[in-house]
Amino acid sequence: MKKKRILVDLLNLATSEIAGVGVFARNLFDLWLKEPDQPYEIVFYSSYVVDVERVLGIKPSKNIRIKKIGLKHVLARFLYQQVVMPFSLLRYDLYFNPTLGIPFLARITAPTTKLAVTIHDLIPFFYPQKYSRLRGILVKVVSKYAAKAAHRVITVSANSKKDIVNIARIDPDKVTIVYNFIPTTPLLSNAKDEHFFLCISTLEPGKNVENTIRGFARFLEKYKQPIQFYWAGRVGWVYTQADLDNMVRSQNMVGSFIFSGYLDEEKKRELLTNCTAIVYLSHYEGFGLPVLEGMMYNKPAVVSNNSSLPEVVGKTGVLCDPLDPESIADAMQQVILNRDALTKAIPAQLKIFSPQEQLNVFKDTVNKLLWPHRRTP
Description:
The chain is an alpha/beta fold. The chain has two domains: 4-181 and 354-370, Rossmann fold (3-Layer(aba) Sandwich), CATH 3.40.50; 188-352, Rossmann fold. The protein has helices spanning 20-32, 52-55, 74-88, 106-109, 123-126, 133-149, 158-168, 209-223, 241-250, 265-274, 289-296, 309-313, 325-337, 339-344, 346-352, 355-370, and strands spanning 4-9, 40-47, 64-69, 94-97, 114-118, 152-155, 175-177, 196-200, 228-232, 257-261, 277-280, 301-304, 317-320. The strands form two sheets. It has a seven-stranded parallel β-sheet, sandwiched between helices. Strands 10-9-8-11-12-13 form a six-stranded parallel β-sheet, with helices on both faces. Helix 7 (158-168) links the parallel strand 6 and strand 7 (175-177). Helix 8 crosses helix 13. The longest helix has 17 residues, at 133-149. The radius of gyration is 21 Å and the shape is globular.
């Protein structure tokens, strides 16, 4: 049987310091590419900006190739996607973008090629302050077009599916949920508590940095707990490191609220092992991967009472109003007082995000696109 050809578009990855979208891709490929007797040939298009072999663990083989595109600037990569790539699609049976976007000309230049895209969230529609005005408009246009043009949309939560269906006005049956997952064995037995809260995230406006700092300051003032706060992640857009340091200084929390920068996997595991709980107070999330990462280490969480976060945390955490420092402070106290009960709920919640189950859903989606009229191999 002739193998089907799949183009996986990774040109949107702009840094080796991957966060939610990049981690989803890495975890998915980690399992998918290890499957024996793959009935397809897969070509990954990536730029020289990101070493996908190292960062995503993609290893070239007989049926897996990496095509490097020598474009570093984001605008140049975008133009390549929109002008050059559409004419390459005729050589492929399936185009898949695990980040966001579909070439606008794809339906015209390659009418027989199936199109699949992962849309993790629709943040600009719910929290436009996250991006500059121009970038926000671009992400809105690209998101809606991708949802409409794709033969199949993959998203990472029921909440994101609801938002995509409502905003893009597409058939719910066109959207498949493949939850984020961690493709490793839970390290529950190694969990400790060194008395600090942990947030793992890029530092940008959508992550509600200022209210997180205010809420923790109120928690220390109100409950007098001997605990610190570590924020692990690179400085993203809008903020500078000086801005962040000034926020902490204004709340008299120098030494209590610590920005540790972007961490490699080993250092991140160390923080996850030793923290008291995860704190994740975003204005809007498509999923909230750090909450799941915390569960893998038997850690409860304090999360916003919005978007996908209640769905992901289930009964393993405490919800709060992310705009109210008093609500945040009270939730931090509750997660400490009720930690035993919250952690007991973690094994059941983790079953929802079973790696093998999510991989099976993804493979079934791909195979139905490639072999729509017969049983998939």
